[in-house]
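hiii, so i know i said id send this last week but things got crazy w the move. better late than never?? heres the sequnce for the chain we talked about at the cafe, plus the structure i predicted for it. fair warning i was half asleep when i ran it
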Amino acid sequence: MQRLRSLLPAAVLLASGALQAPPALAMELDIREVGPGTWALIGRTEDLSPQNGGNIANAGFIATPEGVVVIDTSASRTLGEAWRAAIEARTKGRIVRVYNTHLHPDHILGNQAFPAEALATLPPTRQSIQEVGEAFNDNLYRMVGEAMKGTNVVVPRQLAQAGTTEFGGHRIRVMAMQGHSAADLVVFDETTGTLFTGDLVFFDRAPTTPHADLARWRESLDTLAALPFKRMVPGHGPVLDDRRGIDMTRRWIDWLERTFTEAAQAGLDMNELLARPLPAEWASLPLAASEYRRSVAHLYPAIERRVLSATVSQ
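okay and structure toks below
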């Protein structure tokens, strides 16, 4: 597996409206060849910040004789333009399809750097981007700062459909799943064995849960685990040639649900739950403490209601 790095080019940083590159974006894009004609952009296992410019999520592309298929566009106009420049430096093919795997802004706010007619996503994701995309964009401006300058929300025009197609000598399967969000699009290049999971899988970084349905997430992980992939590009974390990312993500969400259920049964409030230390298994995982706190807010109220309802009905 070849590993290459690309500096954000000055031409990209200054293109389309003379954006001024903030010092935080004097960084490298970590771009790796993960299979024949297949590349991945590996984001940093960090939280959003001015220092990383929002470059925290993975993305990918598949170059074929009939055109290029892109998976996710990163977190801003500047990063999207840099990602597109990196793609065009590695293939002369026309970009014919750009998939948004789900609604979260670190994966979609680079959309405006790509051909509008090529953008596609699942129907619930398209609707969510229409409804909350601007709020996401505003929030990233607050978290990342000047690196977001010039970023606008672009809603995909095309609706992606689950199924398998032969394209440019590649057999590409698009899969519609749920769990991390209401609609999680997965791209599996059966020809090279490369699986792009979006945020259904995290590795070496705590999973996020703002729109999670844990039961459906487990079902999706079961489906992913059964696929005959050779390598996996998770939504966050390093490229893998095994199922460790699936296993880690499952252990995390199982631990959250078990911990929150036991706390609700014991009558703990949110502050008491937040005060609990992380177990040894997770203490050193990047962003575990902050994502745990967020997950308490995201998930605990519903689990409390479920436990209370079960208690009352007994």
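btw The chain has one domain: 3-249. thought thatd interest u
miss u guys!!
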